[in-house]
Design goal:
single chain; alpha+beta; three-stranded antiparallel β-sheet; elongated
Length: about 120
């Protein structure tokens, strides 16, 4: 069982490496075909290839704390900006998005999905 586990684990690592190469190729294709950080879809040979884009928004800690202190909104600061309270303050109109211009950092992650196309 130990030998089998080791062999399967090695195969798993090889498969994961190959999948990463394919994902990279698919993302390069979509970068060229539809643009960076843009979702896309391709139907080919009975399969649908999709790329989804997830956006993660985070407040830059130092800049946001500085800006909130300037605006005398220190109750929105814990040791780092309290994102829940900031979002609430934005929703309530106590804070404008322009007040925090330059404080928001966007991160993107790409996800590739392959599904057979049903022939119904």
């Amino acid at each position: 069982m130990i030998v089998q586990y080791d062999e399967l684990n090695q195969k798993k690592k090889e498969v994961e490496k190959e999948l990463e190469k394919l994902k990279k190729a698919f993302n390069q294709y979509f970068d060229i075909a539809v643009g960076k950080n843009v979702k896309g879809e391709l139907n080919i040979s009975g399969y649908k290839l999709q790329r989804q884009i997830r956006t993660l928004e985070k407040f830059e800690q130092d800049e946001t704390v500085k800006r909130l202190e300037e605006l005398k909104l220190t109750d929105l600061i814990q040791k780092k900006p309290d994102e829940v309270k900031i979002k609430s303050a934005l929703n309530l109109g106590l804070l404008k998005e322009t007040d925090l211009e330059g404080c928001v950092k966007l991160n993107y992650s790409q996800a590739i999905y392959v599904n057979p196309i049903s022939t119904n």
